[in-house]
Amino acid sequence: MKFDTKVVRASSKPDKTTGAVVPPIYQTATYVLEEVGKDKGFDYTRASNPTRQLLEEHLAAIEGAKYGVCFSSGMSAVDSVLKLLKSGDHIVCSDDVYGGVSRHFNNVLVNYGLEFTYVNSSNPEEVSNAIKSNTKLLWIETPTNPLLKITDLKAMNDIAKSKNLIFGVDATFSTPVFLRPLDFGADLVMHSTTKYLSGHNQIIGGSIHTNNKEIFDKMKFIQKTIGAVPSPFDCFLTMLGLRTLHLRMQRHHENALEVANFLEKHPKVSRVAYPGLESDPGHSIAKEQMSGYSGMISFELSGGIPAGKHLMNNVKLCFLAESLGAVETMITHPATMTHAEVPAEERHARGLTDGLVRLSVGIEDKDDIIDDLSQALENA
Q1: What is the mean pLDDT of the chain?
Q2: 77: closest CA among 57, 95, 104?
Q3: Which of 173, 186, 205, 380 is disulfide-compatible with 307, CB 3.0–4.6 A?
């Protein structure tokens, strides 16, 4: 079965009772046993649920994975991965990582004895030099949030395998449509299903995918034990969104490339980060390992913070909102929104300036998006 067909049909299994094309929502907490010690595959929804299981199988199919485990948010998925480790273990992590991840690492998990080193993962030598005797996990975002930095996954896999590390990749920005990290040797892949996978700003969720049975068994145990699971209704909504993922992602990609080219040529824009641009420092690696460049753009204005605020306060079509990856175009100021709790000194050291703007390009007509940005930039 080819990829596009998997996207549409992986969870499209007619209901055995009614023949319904759309999977039913099993909105139940518990299940009646046939007799003592004998169930029908389900006993308690925290452990497993037919709707969630179907979503996990669907996501695994399009990721090219044997196994999938779903969680109630992207952050609960990340946290569950870190529960594979123990006190005293060390993690090497991309420096331009999502602000919620670095906040969790730096303010919560350090209290449980985990150590973190942040590196520019676009530079394999820097990654290699950061590994210590107690390093157990290499955690990579590509493209990163919000600077869209690209990491060479083949190089990361070589490093991880040579040092016997777990190699995890957050591929939320790319989705399986454009990048499947397991093909490059990753041990596990994480997605915030809140974003492109569901695609309509309708749910919060996360997922982990792997071909490693040992990792899968541990993740399932953590999922069941902690209980950070998505509701059956959220799983149902995610599956509906998934069925058009390949079509939406192609439109996101096409629109973003046009918008990035417009911004790059605009006299009031000083810098544009988009891996689809030939001028982008990560373009060559992105071209090798991705089949498209998704819909995320970051840029800076020549007028700095005042210009950025003017732009974001004067858009009419674009939504000034957190999150990303939905059908609507959304604009964000990372320093005061998504990365507000990252100390300014740390943000600046990572290249995340106060004037940076992040744009999640939607699937509206590209001319309307560009016209909106153009009018908002007039007096920026």
Answers
A1: 95
A2: 104
A3: 380
Segment (H or E) for 54: helix 50-63
Catalytic residue list contains 195: yes
Tell me the backbone φ, ψ of residue 139, rounded to 5 degrees: -115, 115
Q: How far apart are CA 141 and CA 149, in angstroms?
A: 8
Quick count: other Cβ atoms within 10 Å of Cβ 107? Answer: 10
User: Of the residues 26, 31, 67, 98, which is catalytic?
Assistant: 98
Q: Give the residues of the chain that fall short of pLDDT 50.
A: none
Asked if 184 and 167 touch (Cβ cutoff 8 Å), the reply is no
**Of 46, 103, 163, 309, which one is the catalytic site residue?**
46
Structure confidence by residue, pLDDT tens digits, 98-149: 989 999 999 999 999 999 999 999 999 999 999 999 999 999 999 999 999 9
Burial class (CB in 10 A: 0-12, 13-18, 19+), 188: buried
Q: What pTM, to 2 d.p., does this model score?
A: 0.96
- The token duo for 170 is 């957050």
Whether 243 is catalytic is no
> Which structural domains are found in the chain, ordered by start?
3-242 (3.40.640.10), 245-377 (3.90.1150.10)
**Does residue 4 have an active-site annotation?**
no
Catalytic residue among 136, 149, 195, 366: 195
Which CA distances in Å does 331 have to 37, 273, 344, 354?
Answer: 53, 14, 21, 15
Reference 241, options 284, 302, 198; nearest CA is: 198
46 Rama class: left (phi>0) / alpha (psi -120 to 50) / beta: alpha
* 104-107-108-113 Cα dihedral, nearest 10 degrees: 120
- Is 170 in the active site? yes
